[in-house]
């Protein structure tokens, strides 16, 4: 068995997505009043278009990956947590945590934590600068949105 | 000479000290709101209605219009510097603006954006002044069938926007349309692809996708590249000055972008975002060096910036001459005018000439303010790029999150934003272009809706798209723009 | 959420102290102890948002409320997102929201698990009416001309500003039924707003438009490209619409209200309901309200909690019968 190339892998994944999409498109309810084109036509066309395109992709010879050459091959090997992929994953987790904690913690606290935490994690060591800049930006934005523009932001545990 | 007299009258209103102050306050606030990703002119204006409540109508509209075009002006800044579109209309600016910033030409990119915006804004005010009443006829001549044809024409740009692999570009476009139709189907009220979640009933907001796929994905990508401290300060700003040949180079794109943008803006529903995309892809097709678009071509900054500001002014045509809003932003403006006791519509030019001509005159002043306000600030704003990268990346994340939350007040949208960030990274790593997805996202839904509306009106007769002359000619242009390049290529090979 | 409100109250205190003097004289049994969250179940800029912000502002300016009314936007799902949130807040006397026909229509079409019976009616405040427009050079001079034409050629399209099964469609279908047509036979074409529909009417792409009377005022009058055939009000409206006959004048026995009011959390204590009823009744009498109301083209239509509740039940019955005729009832 020959190994599949990148495009072929992608094509298979996309074909699966397309199949699932088509299956869902068939479950869209029909509108009780007669319509020349009902809600389901467009999704069905899109699903099949994606299916056909993934077939084309399967047979397209892969170009060198756009990102591959620029990902630094000798990025810090050191501790596992500071490898490039670990950084991305930690950031994704941190942002998700921010989203979930925004309301209970309040806007100012959650934003400060995320911003300072990530900056330190990315390896910037002048903590006073980090703190000052973050505080300035977060408070400035908060005051502008809540006081000037009258947008309600969650206050959380802080008194404002 | 009527127009001149009217304009003089307009200036006599716009030049009252209090109105000058309002223009300035408006464009200043607009610039700042525009720079913040997510927070767009719509919510800013809606929140300002109570402030304008007790104002003289001309002053109120002068202030609010200033916020609107100021935001479009300022939105280019974050598109160029951070790859995070400040407002929807400036997404296309980031295609070449951000690569320029990465090459160390942030200053030049910002300066071009400022000049192009200024010219686009000013040229379109001239149009607004001279032909607004005539144009209202053009605006209403676009029914559902014509919109469908226009969207098809817009979508043909997918081909020119996907340079490396056409298949991947088309896949991105299909996915973009798929995202655009999530939510309640306007034509029937049926839910589609909401997975039973009430959070998806209203569909997915354009800016959530754009910020995720551009800004967040860019942050992730920079993290992957590893170099935190290794990459020293980039000394990023570069020179603001344009050489004579560069001025010559962008003159064409700016003037074409201004005209195209204005007419796109006049059409209700099209607006700044579509205008800037059309401007961008048209220049890409025309330019001899079209294949360097996307890598930091100055024309790729100039065209969409001229177009989006012109479209912004253009969108005042249906508002002021017909009293119908062409976009979410002008809908809020219409509401504000009604509150102030002005009924925009065919009668407004006669009943309230002070409002119409005052606003027109104030736009000339506002655009000058924007230019003199922005140009000297460029070196300081561009300093953002000299920030330590670790800090900059965290701040971009925060900006995007705040922008999205301030727009929808929804934690769900924050998670969605993150999801699109991850999708954007994946697309980037596997060589899928983002621009076709964004374009299809903007056009897809309007295309489907207007197609079904047109068929509903015609009783299911598909000939309606061919029977109408405007629709037919737009479809022919679309077909030509797809086939001509192929024929050219054939010939060259032969 | 609880703590956050306490903090908000601190901010609101100075304002509350100022107004305390006038309000305390009335010796209420219940009074809010913290600032009131006033939810607009939509984005800034729409009808609900305008109501919420205008009411909050008038209450504050006129010094009527003892506590601050904080306007909060919870957009999504045509209101469903906000309703789901508020329904969880059982008995909370410090949370209100703006409401209008969608609170009945959206649940009837199956897009919300919560309907008006899940919440406490507080008061109906204002109303608007539907208006039917045709192009100024159209051959239809009266509503009956239009309905006769629709009877003959059901393909003629009537545009509206919202999805099928929502306000504009129901209003049109109801009027058509009253005029002796099949409700479902009207070729209703939904546009993305009343303005969008009116533009298409001016361009001659559709035959007629149904939209809110307030929204259309700017389009009518001398030299206008549109002509109004009728309003769904029980009697003629004032202002720029005094020349427009009602449906009933033209022999079509049908009225349709686009009302707006305020509702509260499920099982709100009766004393709190009484407090808010009085508060809004008082607000409608103030100069500040009347000024704002006239500018926005609203018509006062106050009902207290009980009357509003009965009205809502009657509306639900009326709407479900029209939706049933249309075949759009999903339950």
Automatic annotation (TrEMBL), chain A:
- Taxonomic superkingdom: Bacteria
What InterPro entries does the record point to?
A: DUF1468 (IPR009936)
**Keywords for this entry?**
Membrane, Transmembrane, Transmembrane helix
One matching Pfam family is: TctB
What sections of the protein cross the membrane?
Answer: 41-59, 80-101, 107-124, 131-149
Locate the DUF1468 domain: which residues?
9-154
Q: Does the keyword Transmembrane helix apply?
A: yes
Q: What is this protein called?
A: Tripartite tricarboxylate transporter TctB family protein
TrEMBL record, chain B:
Q: Name one Pfam family in it.
A: TctA
Keyword Transmembrane helix in the entry? The reply is yes
Q: What positions does the domain DUF112 occupy?
A: 20-439
Q: Which residues cross the membrane?
A: 20-49, 109-132, 138-159, 166-184, 204-224, 259-280, 324-343, 355-378, 390-417, 429-447
Write out the entry's keywords from A to Z. Answer: Membrane, Transmembrane, Transmembrane helix
UniProt key word Membrane: yes
Give the protein's recorded name: Tripartite tricarboxylate transporter permease
UniProtKB/TrEMBL annotation, chain C:
UniProt keyword list:
Signal
Q: What is the lineage of its organism?
A: Bacteria, Pseudomonadati, Pseudomonadota, Gammaproteobacteria, Oceanospirillales
Q: According to its UniProt record, what is one Pfam family this protein matches?
A: TctC
Q: Which residues cross the membrane?
A: none
Q: Which PANTHER family match?
A: TRICARBOXYLATE-BINDING PROTEIN (PTHR42928), UPF0065 PROTEIN YFLP (PTHR42928:SF3)
Answer yes or no on keyword RNA-binding: no
Per the UniProt record, the source organism is Vreelandella malpeensis
SUPFAM superfamilies noted in UniProt: Periplasmic binding protein-like II
Query: Is Transferase found in the keyword set?
Result: no
Q: Family membership, please give it.
A: Belongs to the UPF0065 (bug) family.
Q: What is this protein called?
A: Tripartite tricarboxylate transporter substrate binding protein
Could you tell me which InterPro entries the record lists for this protein?
BUG (IPR005064), Bug_dom1 (IPR042100)
Which residues belong to the signal peptide in this entry?
Answer: 1-27
């Amino acid at each position: 068995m020959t190994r599949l190339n990148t495009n072929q892998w992608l094509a298979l994944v996309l074909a699966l997505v397309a199949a699932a999409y088509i299956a869902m498109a068939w479950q869209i309810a029909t509108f009780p009043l007669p319509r020349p084109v009902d809600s389901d036509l467009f999704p069905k066309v899109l699903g099949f278009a994606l299916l056909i395109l993934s077939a084309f992709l399967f047979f397209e010879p892969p170009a060198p990956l756009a990102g591959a050459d620029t990902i630094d091959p000798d990025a810090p090997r050191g501790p596992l947590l500071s490898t490039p992929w670990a950084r991305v994953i930690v950031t994704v987790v941190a942002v998700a945590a921010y989203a979930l904690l925004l309301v209970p913690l309040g806007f100012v606290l959650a934003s400060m934590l995320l911003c300072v935490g990530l900056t330190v994690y990315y390896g910037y060591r002048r903590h006073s600068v980090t703190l000052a800049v973050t505080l300035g930006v977060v408070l400035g934005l908060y005051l502008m949105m809540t006081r000037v523009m009258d947008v309600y932001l969650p206050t959380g545990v802080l008194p404002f | 000479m009527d127009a001149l007299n009217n304009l003089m009258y307009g200036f006599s209103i716009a030049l009252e000290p209090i109105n000058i102050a309002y223009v300035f306050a408006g464009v200043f606030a607009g610039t700042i709101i525009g720079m913040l990703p997510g927070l767009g002119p719509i919510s800013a204006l809606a929140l300002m209605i109570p402030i304008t409540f007790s104002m003289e109508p001309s002053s109120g509209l002068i202030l609010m219009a200033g916020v609107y075009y100021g935001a479009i002006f300022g939105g280019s800044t974050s598109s160029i510097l951070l790859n995070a579109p400040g407002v929807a209309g400036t997404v296309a600016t980031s295609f070449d603006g951000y690569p320029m910033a990465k090459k160390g030409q942030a200053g030049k990119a910002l300066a071009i954006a400022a000049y192009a915006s200024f010219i686009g804004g000013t040229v379109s005010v001239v149009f607004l002044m001279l032909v607004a009443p005539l144009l209202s006829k053009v605006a209403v001549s676009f029914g559902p069938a014509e919109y469908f044809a226009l969207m098809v024409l817009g979508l043909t740009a997918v081909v020119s926007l996907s340079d490396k692999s056409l298949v991947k570009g088309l896949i991105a476009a299909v996915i973009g349309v798929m995202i655009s139709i999530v939510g309640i189907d306007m034509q029937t009220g049926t839910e589609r692809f909401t997975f039973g979640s009430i959070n998806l009933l209203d569909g997915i907001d354009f800016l959530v996708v754009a910020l995720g796929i551009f800004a967040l994905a860019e942050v992730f990508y920079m993290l992957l590249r590893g170099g935190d401290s290794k990459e020293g300060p980039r000394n990023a700003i570069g020179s603001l000055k344009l050489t004579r040949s560069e001025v010559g180079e962008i003159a064409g794109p700016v003037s074409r972008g201004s005209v195209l943008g204005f007419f796109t803006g006049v059409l209700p529903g099209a607006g700044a975002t579509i205008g800037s995309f059309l401007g961008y892809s048209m220049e890409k097709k025309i330019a001899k060096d079209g294949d360097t678009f996307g890598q930091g071509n100055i024309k790729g900054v100039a065209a969409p910036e001229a177009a989006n500001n012109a479209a912004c002014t253009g969108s005042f045509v249906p508002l002021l001459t017909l009293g119908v809003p062409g976009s979410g932003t002008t809908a809020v403006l219409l509401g504000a005018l009604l509150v102030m006791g002005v009924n925009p519509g065919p009668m407004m030019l006669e009943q309230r000439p002070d409002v119409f001509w005052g606003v027109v005159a104030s736009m000339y002043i506002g655009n000058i303010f924007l230019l003199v306000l922005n140009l000297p600030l460029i070196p300081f704003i561009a300093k953002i790029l000299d920030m330590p990268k670790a800090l900059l990346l965290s701040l971009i994340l925060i900006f995007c999150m705040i922008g999205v939350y301030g727009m929808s007040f929804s934690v769900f949208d924050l998670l969605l934003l993150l999801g699109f960030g991850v999708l954007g990274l994946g697309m980037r790593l596997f060589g899928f272009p983002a621009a076709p997805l964004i374009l299809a996202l903007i056009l897809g839904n309007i295309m489907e809706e207007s197609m079904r509306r047109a068929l509903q009106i015609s009783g299911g007769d598909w000939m309606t798209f061919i029977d109408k002359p405007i629709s037919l000619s737009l479809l022919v242009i679309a077909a030509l723009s797809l086939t001509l390049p192929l024929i050219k290529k054939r010939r060259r090979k032969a | 959420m609880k703590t956050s409100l306490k903090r908000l109250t601190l901010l609101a205190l100075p304002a509350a102290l100022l107004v305390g003097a006038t309000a305390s004289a009335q010796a209420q049994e219940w009074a809010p102890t913290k600032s009131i969250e006033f939810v607009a179940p939509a984005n800034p800029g729409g009808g609900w948002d305008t109501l919420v912000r205008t009411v909050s502002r008038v209450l504050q300016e006129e010094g009527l409320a003892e506590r601050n009314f904080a306007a909060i936007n919870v957009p999504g799902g045509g209101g469903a997102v906000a309703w789901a949130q508020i329904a969880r807040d059982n008995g909370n006397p410090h949370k209100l929201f703006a409401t209008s026909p969608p609170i009945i229509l959206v649940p009837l079409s199956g897009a919300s698990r919560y309907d008006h019976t899940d919440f406490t009616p507080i008061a109906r405040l204002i109303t608007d009416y539907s208006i039917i427009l045709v192009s100024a050079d159209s051959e239809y001079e009266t509503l009956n001309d239009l309905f006769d034409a629709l009877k003959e050629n059901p393909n003629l399209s009537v545009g509206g500003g919202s999805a099928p099964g929502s306000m504009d469609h129901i209003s049109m279908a109801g009027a058509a039924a009253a005029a002796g047509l099949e409700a479902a036979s009207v070729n209703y074409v939904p546009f993305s707003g009343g303005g969008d529909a009116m533009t298409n009417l001016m361009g001659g792409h559709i035959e007629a438009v149904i939209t809110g009377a307030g929204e259309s005022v700017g389009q009518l009058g001398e030299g206008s490209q549109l002509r109004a055939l009728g309003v769904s009000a029980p009697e003629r409206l004032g202002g720029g619409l005094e020349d427009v006959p009602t449906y009933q004048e033209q022999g079509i026995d049908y009225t349709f209200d686009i009302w707006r009011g305020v509702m509260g959390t499920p099982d709100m204590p009766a004393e709190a309901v009484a407090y808010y009823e009085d508060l809004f009744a008082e607000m409608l009498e103030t100069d500040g309200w009347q000024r704002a109301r006239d500018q926005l083209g609203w018509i006062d239509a106050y009902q207290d909690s009980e009357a509003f509740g009965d009205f809502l039940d009657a509306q639900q019955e009326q709407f479900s019968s029209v939706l049933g005729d249309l075949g759009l009832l999903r339950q």
